[in-house]
Amino acid sequence: MMEILREIGMIARALDSISNMEFKEHDLTKGQYLYLVRVCENPGIIQEKLAEMIKVDRTTAARAIKKLQLHGFIEKKEDQHNQKIKKLFPTEKGKQVYPFIIREHDYSNRVALEGLSESEAENLLNLLRKVRKNVEKDWEFVKKGNKRMY
Question: What angle, 0 to 180 degrees and rounded to 10, lies between the N-to-C axes of helices 32-41 and 2-23?
Fold first, then answer.
C-alpha cells in the first residue's frame, strides 16, 4: 500500500517541476501558477480560503500571494462591507496568462491519462477524490496543532 502514495508523490512532483520550468517564461515560479488559477477561477477569494484550497499554511500562501502581487498577476481589494477583509482578484496580466496555464494543465492530463479508457479515468478520479478526502481530515486535524497517533 505504501507504494500508492509514493506513486502519487512522484507524479505530483514531476508535473509541478514541468509546470515550474514552463511557466518561468511568464515570471511564475515555485507553484505560483496554482494560486493564480484559483484566483482566476474564484475572483474575490480571501487569502485564508485560497490557502485551504491549495492545502498550504497561511505563511506559504501569503508569500506566494505577495510575489504574485509584485509581479502584477493579482491584486488585493478591500471588501466593501468590512475593510479588514482583503479579497484577491486577477489583474489583466493574470487573466492573460490563465489560458496558457489551462492549456498546459489539459495537455498534462492527456499525457497522464494516455492508455486509460474513459471509465478507467473516471474510476481513477473517483478513487483519488476518496483518498484526498481521507487525507484532508488528517490535514485539518494536524493544522489545528494536533498530533496523529500512528
Answer: 80
